[in-house]
Amino acid sequence: MQKFALGLSLVFLLLVSGSTFSETSSRHEFKVAKRARFALTIPSSMVVKSQEKQDGVLTLTIVPAEGDIFKILISAAKVRNAGDPEMPAEEIQYLVRLRGKQLLDTSVETELKMMQLTGVHGTGYLYTLTDKRGELPPGEFKYLCQGIMVVGNLQLGATLLTDSPGEEVVIPFFEILRTAEPLK
Predict the structure, then answer these.
(1) CB 60 within 8 A of CB 73
(2) Which of 29, 33, 61, 145 is the S-S candidate for 160 at Cβ 3.0 to 4.6 Å?
(3) Do the strands 122-130 and 115-118 form a parallel or antiparallel pair, or are they unpaired?
(4) What residue ranges do the domains of the chain occupy?
(5) Using alpha carbons only, what angle is made at residue 52 by residues 23 and 103, rounded to the nearest 5 degrees?
(6) 112-165 residue pLDDT tens
(7) How far is residue 154's CA from residue 99's CA, in Å, rounded to a whole number?
């Protein structure tokens, strides 16, 4: 786990210094609850599938075009109306911490370490955890990076599941979130 946490620290340094995707990417637009819209920039080496649930939550599944080294899940929900005050950073942190604490019993980590992620149009908080089970069944992942980013009137719940904590997986995840843009 220390390797994963160290890798994430280095990734944050790269992102703060203005790192961008090193490969071709394209902008994808999504609609949530028939009115709210947002865009994400996603590397062309990834495939995006979307599904809107009856409760108005849009879930995106982003996976590599080849292989199964990771899975990114992003759930977008409208959390406020135009003109409402922005969600305070403390509230975002509280929601992320609440979810993370529920997972601590199943992780190697004994405490939650929160990281702030600032995007072009929003801010959020993330944590990382390592599954404490030894050998995992096929389709399950050892490492989890999870949090919430608020962009405009939308809340993006984001999860990265991976067996490879290297920057080739983590940097694109953070970059996708950083590019989240509310649309009118």
Answers:
(1) yes
(2) 145
(3) antiparallel
(4) 2-183
(5) 75
(6) 999 999 999 999 999 999 999 988 998 899 999 999 999 988 999 999 999 987
(7) 18
Computed from CA positions of residues 158, 162, 165, 171, in that sequence, does the dihedral angle turn out positive or negative? negative
Question: Average pLDDT, whole number, for the chain?
Answer: 86
Contacting residues for 137 by C-beta, under 8 A, at least 6 apart: none
Q: Please report where in the chains the tokens 């809107």 appear, as a residue.
A: 52
Q: Architecture of domain 2-183 in CATH?
A: 3-Layer(aba) Sandwich (3.40)
Note whether 128 and 144 are within 8 A (CB).
Answer: yes
Residue 93 one-letter amino acid: Q
**Edge-first strand listing for the sheet containing 115-118:** 46-52, 58-64, 70-78, 154-162, 143-151, 122-130, 115-118
Confidence of residue 22 (pLDDT cuts 50, 70, 90): low
Strand partners, 54: none
Cβ partners under 8 Å of residue 116, min gap 6:
123, 124, 125
Q: Which residue has the tokens 């759930």?
A: 75
- Structure confidence by residue, pLDDT tens digits, 82-102: 677 888 999 999 999 999 999
pTM comes to: 0.86
Evaluate whether 147 touches 156 at the Cβ level (below 8 Å): no
d(CA 5, CA 153): 31
